[in-house]
Amino acid sequence: MKRRDFYRTVLAVGSVFAVGGAWAQEEAPDALVKRISTEVLDAVKSDAAIQAGDVGRITALVDGKIMPNVNFTRMTASAVGRFWRQATPEQQKRLQDEFKTLLVRTYSGALGEVKEHTLSFKPLRAKPEDTEVVVRSEVRGRGEPIQLDYRLEKTAGGWKIYDLNVLGVWLVETYRSQFAQEINNKGLDGLITSLAQRNKSNGKS
Questions:
Q1: Residue 92 sits in a domain of what CATH number?
Q2: Which of 58, 95, 107, 145 could form a disulfide with 12 if both were Cys (CB 3.0 to 4.6 A apart)?
Q3: 8 Å CB contact between 91 and 77
Q4: How far is the C-alpha of 39 from the C-alpha of 161, rounded, in Å?
Q5: How far apart are CA 203 and CA 205, in angstroms?
Q6: Using alpha carbons only, what angle is made at residue 182 by residues 68 and 81, rounded to the nearest 5 degrees?
Q7: What is the rounded CA–CA span in Å between residue 197 and residue 91?
Q8: pLDDT digit string, tens, across residues 69-118
Q9: Please, which residues have CB within 8 angstroms of residue 19's CB and are 6 or more apart in sequence?
Q10: pLDDT digits over 148-202, tens only?
């Protein structure tokens, strides 16, 4: 597999997401990420439709296993940057919907390769009182292990993922630069239209 394809595969695993002591009353952040990752990998390995890139099945998997554990509002807001506060509630909703569709469609074709890889987690470096942590892991398969890290925040509803790092590159930062250029040129509605068009095009491919 080419490194570029492997990179997309790792992102697909990520987009798509126990210790004792003070964590005991709730699921620890590293345990949460490990559980989600295991459930997603198991689902992919057992579902030929997902392996073939069936967007409907992939979306169902994301909605059922990943999204309940992601602060997608924060993820989208961070990707849009300072322009988020200028967006109307309707624009914010459309941005979240299109951004989610973009992530699912962009990496759906890579999910078929996930069955060949395994995940290895590093010890969590965090204090019980921390409200934001980074869970570090590696994806192992062909070639060198690939770095895959998660940023999580502690909320009233438990730990939530809000960013993903592959090979030293954080997903939100990557999209923030792209979105800022689009907004500067065409405004928020221009970004929404561009995302919708890209999603429509990816859906036909």
A1: 3.10.450.710
A2: 107
A3: no
A4: 16
A5: 6
A6: 50
A7: 16
A8: 999 999 999 999 999 999 999 999 999 999 998 888 776 666 666 667 78
A9: 28, 30, 31, 124
A10: 899 999 999 899 999 998 878 898 999 999 999 999 999 999 999 999 999 888 7
Give the residue-averaged pLDDT of 11-27. 50
Q: To which residue do tokens 């409200």 refer?
A: 131
How many structural domains comprise the chain? 1
Both tokens assigned to 51: 């392996």
pLDDT for 3 beyond 70: no
Residue 33: domain span: 3-204
Q: Which residues contact 37 (CB under 8 A, 6 or more apart)?
A: 13, 17, 119, 137
**Phi, psi for residue 123 in degrees, rounded to 5:** -60, 140
Structure tokens at 111: 């999910």
Alpha carbon distance 85, 96 (integer Å)? 14
Residue 63 CB partners (closer than 8 Å, separation 6+): none
Q: Whose CA is closest to 138, among 120, 124, 125, 152? A: 120
- Give the ranges where the chain is alpha helix by DSSP (H): 3-15, 29-46, 48-51, 55-61, 72-80, 89-107, 171-204
pLDDT over threshold 60, residue 9: no
Separation of alpha carbons 84 and 11, rounded Å? 24
DSSP state of 131: S
Residue 22 near residue 155 (C-beta atoms within 8 A): no
